[in-house]
Amino acid sequence: MSSMDLKPPPPEYYTSEWKLLSQGAEARVWITPALFHIASDDVETVKQHSICKERFPKSYRHPSLDKHITKSRLKAEAKCLARCRRNGVPCPSVLSIDLAKSCLFLEYLNGCTVREFFLLKTIDENSTEITHAEDDASKNNVSPQQKRPRVSSPSNEQEMSLTILTRTDSVAMQVAYGMGILVAKMHNANVIHGDLTTSNIILQNPPLDSNSSEEWSPKLSLIDFGLAGTAGSKGVSHEEKAVDLYVLERAFVSTHPGSDDLVLEFHRAYKRECTRSDAVLQRLSAVRLRGRKRECFG
């Protein structure tokens, strides 16, 4: 993609070797080459394959306010990642930060998202084809953003019947349990993710064989801390932790049909690992009630 086609323009040190992985309302995510130099004196040179998260300016905000907000959010994201790393929570390490260019350089993680791992698709009314997202990712050792689940299209698209299913075998249960441990560790570190979904958890070692669950254990990492926060030594409230869990539950409901057993396994692990989990889960019940009222009455 040419830099002329990008709006707003990419960072000054952008080259044609950069690959755009995604672009949202707040930021663009790039995969960078293995070796490049940042044209800035106050940051370190990144010397490995990495992810660049670039927060671009918002035209609807006053320039001074926009710079202040962007700088604060970059610092907060880097701070939360560093705190997680110090407390043994798997997540990308911060390689470098360029506040002048609003860019955060992070460790590149191979694998597939948990969302892709749980996703099964059946196609065609007469025959069934199930696609596993982790097969492509594990065989080619690429990031989840580069490989997506592939579904073969029948010759007559009008006759195609597509059904989204959720993987709930023993391997999927191990992943759900690992997610509970992962999120509990993050909450024990006084960090709130803010956007906890199965798309923001990477499975770095998807199994090649679904029957190999006995000798296999999932290697999970959290990503995308753009909305994360921390309350320092005072700790975050049970309410904030419960909202994190509620967001994840809603992600399961909207993305993974028939995933009740996975959610139960997640909560089982979270309750075992999280400090004062009983208080958090009790608060979660109140958050769920507010959510149901909002759905009913707007």
UniProtKB/TrEMBL annotation:
It comes from the Eukaryota. Pfam families: PK_Tyr_Ser-Thr. Residues 15-298 form the Protein kinase domain. One of its GO terms (cellular component) is cytosol. It catalyses: L-threonyl-[protein] + ATP = O-phospho-L-threonyl-[protein] + ADP + H(+); L-seryl-[protein] + ATP = O-phospho-L-seryl-[protein] + ADP + H(+). Residues 131-162 are annotated as: Disordered. GO terms for biological process: tRNA processing; tRNA threonylcarbamoyladenosine metabolic process. Belongs to the protein kinase superfamily. BUD32 family. This is non-specific serine/threonine protein kinase. PROSITE patterns: PROTEIN_KINASE_DOM (PS50011), PROTEIN_KINASE_TYR (PS00109). The keyword ATP-binding applies. Its EC number is 2.7.11.1. Residues 139-162 have a biased composition (Polar residues). The keyword Acetylation does not apply. Gene3D superfamilies: Phosphorylase Kinase, domain 1, Transferase(Phosphotransferase) domain 1. Keywords: ATP-binding, Kinase, Nucleotide-binding, Serine/threonine-protein kinase, Transferase, tRNA processing. GO terms for molecular function: ATP binding; protein serine/threonine kinase activity. InterPro entries: Kinase-like_dom_sf, Prot_kinase_dom, Ser-Thr/Tyr_kinase_cat_dom, Tyr_kinase_AS.
